[in-house]
Structure formats: structure tokens, C-alpha cells
Amino acid sequence: MKLQGRVAVVTGSTRGIGRAIAESLAKEGALVIVNSRHQKEADEAALDLGGGAVGIGADLAAPAGVEALFDAVESRFERVDILVNNAGIPMVRDSAELSLADWQQTLDINLTAPFLCAQRAGRDMLAKGGGNIVNIASVTAFAPFPKRLAYATTKAGLVMMTRILAAEWAPTVRVNAVAPGFIKTGLVMGLAAEGKVDLKELEGRTPQRRLGSAQDVASACLFLVSDEAGFITGETLVTDGGWLAYGFV
After folding, report:
1. Pairing of β 54-57 and β 82-85
2. pLDDT per residue as tens digits for the range 196-206
3. Could you confirm whether 246 is annotated as catalytic?
4. Of 151, 169, 182, 243, which is the active-site residue?
5. Residue 125 in domain
6. 156 domain-assigned
7. Helix 113-128 / helix 63-77 crossing angle, nearest 10 deg
């Protein structure tokens, strides 16, 4: 599964799932670009990763941030072999109280930014003969969760984006997605502390009887960008410990 010398961009990769993905790619020999809105955070995470990792600060909520990220990558490495669209924000609001500003922010970061990143990276991959894109979706793309209207809408859109780009860019570029269930990250732990999720209830509802780890998601991504997944494109790999298979929300 070696990825020696491949240039991998992982958006939102200084902590949580993104950080685990970046670390896994680096361990397999990829040259990882760590992204954060803040240059200092990106630099610190890249230094921790080692292996030639580079930190690039860019706010992907704006198209100019996407351009700045990929301009910097192409200036230094001249190509992109792997893109993992991980950056995103949660949005837990009662639908009747969801403001237009919150709706738009969620779309900008969770759906428009991945589109722009995929488009920019995809052009490079098509021109240079190949590459892999993985979009981080969610089980909320497939199951209705109250108060997740904006978030789930973006993740469902990301699944369809994955399918369309895969069909359009084959056979040169493979495009897949990973849909995590409830993962034990700082974000989920924060929601638990605010009383918005019940960890014991989630564990009991999951057939594997535990929450996922960031590494569980990273391993799924690592497989999808590897040569072992060479005949897989347009798919969404659900990584949820059996949550959707159980059949009840």
C-alpha cells in the first residue's frame, strides 16, 4: 500500500479525523500538505508529521482560499496526486430556527469548498495522467437526523458529487467518499458536553458497541487511495460500526 512520493492534500488536517488521515498517508510515504485556516497551526502539525510534510494556511470558505492552497501546492510540488476533502463544520440547529447565514456557511464550507478543491485538483490530475479524490461525507447523508438539516444536506450532496465526478473523470481519476458514523473526536465530545449527544446511547445503538476512532476513518481513506482499490470509483464507504445496517435512528 506504499504511497511513496505521492503528493497528498488533506484539507482541515491539523486535528481530529483530518489529522489521522494526514498521519496515515505520511506513514505510507506520501508527501502530505497539511491545511488549516491558520498558517501557524498548519506549520506545527506538519512539523509533527515529519517526512517532508508542508503546512499551508488557507481559509477554504472563500474561493480565494482554495486558489491560494492549490497555487502554493503546485508551486512547490508541481502536481497533486491525492486530495482528501475533509474540512467541514457541524451545524446542529432546530430547522425552524436555522438562519440563512448558518445555512449558507454550512454550504460554503461543507459543499462548495470540496467542489472547488476537487475541481482544481481534478484538472491537474486529468492533465497529468491520474489521481485520487476522497470526500468525507457522513451517515447523515443516508439517515435523517433531527436538527441536522443543513449539515446532512451538504453531506448528501457530497455523495452525489462523488458519483458524478467519478463517472465523468474515469478512468484517469478515481473519486470516492467515506461516510463516518459517530467518531470519538473532540467535536463529538464537545457536543456531548453540551448535552447535544448521549455517548452511552450512541454506543448502545451501534452494533459494534463503540464509537469509531479517527483512525478507523483514516484506514478507510488509505484503502481508497491505494492501488488495492484500483477498480473502485464512485463509491461511498460507510464507516459506522453497523449504525446504518441496524436500521433505526
Report:
1. unpaired
2. 788 999 899 99
3. no
4. 151
5. yes
6. yes
7. 30
